[in-house]
Task: structure prediction
Amino acid sequence: MASVHFIFGLHNHQPIGNFDHVFEYAYNRAYKPILETLEKYKEMKMALHYTGPLLEWLERKHPEHLELLKDLIQRNQVEIVISGFYEPVLASIPTSDRQLQLRIAKEYAKKLGYNPKGVWITERFWEPSLAKDIANSGLEFAILDDQHFIAAGLKKEELYGYYLTEYEGHAIAVFPIDEYLRYLTPFRPVDRTMKYLKELNEKFKEPLVVIHDDGEKYGVWPGTYEWVHKKGWLKNFFDEITSSEFLEVTTYSEYMKRKPPLGLVYIPTTSYFEMSEWSLPSDQAKKFVEFVNLLKQQGIFKKYREFVKGGIWKNFFYKYYEANYMHKRMLFLSDLTRRSLKAKMYVLRAQCNDAYWHGVFGGVYLPHLREAIWRNLILAHDYVARGRIYVRDIDMDGHTEILYERPKYFVVLKPSYGGSIIELSSREKLYNYVDVLSRHREH
Result:
């Protein structure tokens, strides 16, 4: 009888504004071979999240992939997990937009033949209020890192199941992703993963173990296509998982029907550990790394890691003024377009998270991603513009800006900064000529 319950999930994403050849590259090296391999293993199940920009691209370029996805859903091999459709960091957008993003994602999932129950939290950036928005959207669970639970005071050995959390009486389930497995797969041989799962089987009674990570790690990251697909890591992984006598492959929804929660937990505002470094200003991030290395040298980092705190995702709006202005312009337009769904859809697209921050990859430094955000912001504003002048603190720094709706341009002046023009957006070109990133020191 199987005694380890195992969930394997992937999050597949390409941002608004990314190049078509990048979508195609990721499709051929990860999304396509993963799904085609899954099709051959009828006993294998996966939880899959596709973001809106990727789904829209697949609809245009590879509808056959969506047809295969529908078939696997019908065969009960795939559970669809959603997030905000255009992959915003939910905690960074207004409540009404959170629910609209989730509603659109739910409706798309239903087109694929699945009524989704769960949410992938973008960049795993959690704020407690999200529980209410998720519950009010008719969803039942969210997926977070095990470190989120440890930050709430739980011990690692208490994380082999799921918990409930609530906000203002609105409750959802929360599942912990096993961090060790997340770093183990797919970079190490399959037998390392199986050994770890066997150890958990011997140590705990019917543990639930979850891997849920970026799909791009399974073919797009350097060296992974050769390893995962050409040399057969994924096939070997599926072979071992489906033939194991001590493993039962399941999904989040199936597991919730069969097993009760382990208890109630209140998870603080947090993300994965690396984000706490990246979101700090450069000098502070450097000190943070020095502190972590000092703890590691003394051999006490693992013991006290949960007490090592850095920044949070929203700190990027302090770290990069350009990201902050883009974000606050989005908030301004979110309010301005509240009565126009067509205009609001452009705002939702402009909420795609990638251009607002920087970690390992380009993010805010990539002009084509910022241009895509601005294109959608300008389209949203153009739809509701009436030749008005706004005098208000748009960037929320305590000083008033002046926004002019001109026939061909949107112009924003900042009197507190010498009357500088901080936005010059062409309504014809759909381009902000002041969308230039200042030099920033990075640690």
The chain has three domains: 4-258, 274-311, 316-432. The radius of gyration is 23 Å. The longest strand covers residues 4-12.
